[in-house]
Amino acid sequence: MTIYNKGIYTRRAARLCILMIVMLISGPFDALSQELKRLSRSGELDSMTVTSADTLVSQKPPQMPEPLHVHNDSTFRSDSLAAADSVALLNKSSLDAPAFTAAKDSIIEDFSDGKKLIYYYGDVSVTYGNMKLTADYMEYDLNTGILYARGTKDQNGSIKGQPVMQQGGKSYSMEEVRYNFNTQKARITNMLTQEQDGILHGKNIKMLPDKSINITQGRYTVCDCEEPHYYLHLSAAKVMTQPSQKTVFGPAWPVVEGVPMFPVVLPFGFIPKRPDRATGILFPTFGEEASRGFYMRDAGMYFVIGDYFDVALTGDIYTLGSWAVDFNSRYKVNYKFNGSVALTYSNDQTGERGSSDFFQSRNFGVKWNHSQDSKARPGTSFSASVNFSSPSNNKYNANNVEQALQNQIQSSISYSRNWNGKMNLSINALHNQNSRDSSYSFTLPNITFSVNRFYPFKQKNRVGKEKWY
User: Where in the sequence is the domain holding 376, given as residue range(s)?
Assistant: First the structure.
């Protein structure tokens, strides 16, 4: 083929390509032209043209979204869900888990064969809610949530670091305890706690989630010795805190010096929460004196008489024949006066009757204290401090060593009156006594009356030179 023929074929191929491109471009435009003609005939083209023009003219650059619309962001929603999940996880895990302090000795972990046990040795404590438990040894099972605590033996064989639980403002001392953190129940052996004015012992105790306590083989006493000299043996008891504090017990009987006082048996009873003032029995104290033998002191009754007055009647008895009767009373009226009265009468014997060292005496004592409120009667006051007794009363019926060694006692009763600072009246009665020589002295009454200087003939509106009078 010649070069001329090649040029002819080349031009023909170029024309064919241009024709195909024109057909491809003109096809859509023909369809668009036909559509425009149709819309023009129907009148829709004008409205579309105006709308399109207005839109283009009024179109503004895109703006950043306002801060109030940030919550529509999906990323923000995912972050919020993550935070909520974190808080829920925190509430379920760390806040409800027991918190242990580091043990002074050592901490051993045992995670073998599916076990999750942690052993704490040496002065460890755990806190869970409002409960705190301290002991010298603890064992915690993470699978069951049960904690076991007890004391340990020292080199001398004595137990140290026994568990002490503090919860709801009360303290419980015990020999050993098993506490379930999941159910908040506990099993305790040999527990000791303060209950009202007495001490409650329990051998087998179960503590429930409502803070109530079930006790078997318990003892209730007011003796603070480790082995009480006397107590009320409780075969079964329950200490309830809701709705009010009280202790209910089943069959019970008194025990003195380890001897059950049969046939005295109480089929049931309860120990209610003691109010501030209530009539009831005053439990005695027991002991021994070298000169008067074994004793039972301060046994009696307490009476509440109205809102301003109370009385306590008590008695003492000794195995060698001594006895005493006491009367104690208090009174108080707010903004008026208050005071107390104490009367004592006793028969004191030392030694055995018929022996050379036998001695017997009758003693008495009177005490009265009274004070008047300054607001009751302005310008007038009355007070009394009376202490009068037989010479040997303090020797046998003293409440403390200082009182037993006191040889001299005094009494005074005073009344005073003031008339606007112009006149003053004071009346006193005094008493002194010496127990060494059994001497008494009284001064009554001791009256003092004083008047400030005044001028009866002085004129309010003086005329002329002042006179000497």
Answer: 275-469
